Q: What sequence folds into this?
């Protein structure tokens, strides 16, 4: 039997927990799910149009905060990570004052890639092309053979900086170095969603493992897969389908974002009891969907975080970032084995099932003779996502 200490307390108050239990019991008893008012028709070009993809990168990702890392990936001063965002490759650097700053990974001299490693710890970054050197604060410290280069004002030649903020344990960035760009994660999340994320205390979690996977799939195809609880019984027969109820979810929009609850089949052991007295913690998955491109799945003993980062310069490319967060670092072989097992399950769900299906979907939506696609009333979270994307691009600087 698993150590009860591995399971963090349920992060929501009794009223919220009771609501989760009551609604899931009702859906499972009646064969229902939360539903949108009507079926939504969508244009398949949203998954393949280069002009739309360019607008998304410039008008959305160039302005709004997205997650670039978890704070425990940069535990010490001078720790750094290189991160590919939709518009820029960025170097995140933990400063001596504890803050994290982000810089475009390009030497200001001739445009060489400055940092070639994925991560490390450095006080200075030196360009391997001509030896220009930058501090961890992005300032240009030295020009090699400066007397022969010519007079330059080094104070104006620091690395281009993108806005960065830490909140809820994550490092967020706005993917633009334009002077007018600011970051305010709390405003972006809105008070209700910010409080829901805060309740999970993700700043107390540790990033056990992170993986990057480059795929020739539009990022919205992948986001759709994680918004959808309708495909579990069909696409995931080899992994999680035996353990989760299909097509039975609750959906709560929270401003731009939303929260969904789905049930493990183990919930059947407590159905019929009073929703106000049952412990529903180990029987449900609470999913937070952060517009535009992130999912946080709260499993009973860990968190799974997925980011779908549009690739630069193409409509059909995504860097899928996967993270497993645990309440404490794995300090024993038993804990390491436990979290590695969960990592391998997540890999199997994605690599062997979701990605296989969605690579086929991406190929199919390139067919010339293709009519509109449809999101059912039961695909309520997907409808929220697509309606929000359309509204965000129709109303720049307000984003839905």
A:
């Amino acid at each position: 039997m698993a150590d009860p200490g591995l399971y963090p307390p349920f992060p929501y108050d009794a009223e919220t927990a009771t609501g989760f239990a009551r609604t899931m019991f009702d859906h499972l008893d009646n064969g229902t799910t939360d539903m949108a008012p009507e079926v939504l028709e969508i244009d398949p070009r949203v998954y393949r149009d280069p002009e739309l993809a360019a607008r998304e990168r410039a008008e959305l990702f160039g302005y709004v905060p997205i997650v670039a890392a978890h704070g425990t990936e940069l535990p010490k001063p001078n720790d750094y990570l290189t991160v590919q965002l939709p518009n820029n490759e960025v170097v995140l650097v933990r400063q001596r004052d504890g803050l994290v700053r982000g810089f475009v990974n390009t030497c200001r001299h001739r445009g060489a890639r400055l940092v070639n490693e994925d991560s490390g710890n450095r006080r200075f970054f030196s360009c391997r092309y001509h030896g220009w050197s930058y501090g961890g604060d992005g300032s240009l410290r030295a020009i090699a053979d400066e007397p022969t280069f010519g007079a330059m004002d080094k104070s104006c030649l620091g690395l281009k900086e993108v806005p960065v903020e830490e909140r809820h344990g994550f490092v967020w960035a706005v993917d633009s170095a334009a002077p007018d760009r600011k970051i305010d994660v709390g405003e972006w999340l809105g008070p209700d969603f910010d409080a829901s994320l805060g309740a999970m205390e993700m700043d107390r979690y540790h990033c056990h493992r992170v993986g990057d996977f480059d795929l020739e799939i539009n990022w919205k195809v992948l986001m759709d897969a994680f918004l959808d609880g309708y495909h579990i019984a069909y696409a995931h027969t080899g992994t999680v389908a035996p353990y989760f109820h299909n097509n039975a979810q609750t959906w709560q929009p929270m401003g731009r974002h939303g929260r969904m609850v789905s049930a493990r089949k183990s919930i059947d052991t407590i159905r019929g009891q009073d929703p106000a007295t049952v412990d529903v913690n180990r029987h449900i998955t609470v999913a937070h969907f952060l517009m535009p491109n992130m999912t946080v799945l709260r499993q009973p003993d860990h968190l799974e975080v997925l980011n779908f980062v549009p690739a630069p310069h193409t409509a059909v490319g995504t860097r899928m970032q996967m993270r497993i967060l645990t309440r404490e670092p794995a300090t024993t072989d038993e804990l390491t084995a436990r979290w590695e097992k969960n990592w391998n399950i997540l890999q199997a769900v994605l690599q062997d099932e979701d990605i296989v299906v969605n690579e086929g979907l991406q190929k199919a939506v390139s067919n010339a003779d293709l009519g509109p696609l449809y999101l059912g009333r039961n695909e309520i979270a997907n409808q929220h996502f697509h309606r929000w994307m359309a509204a965000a691009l129709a109303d720049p600087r307000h984003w839905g």
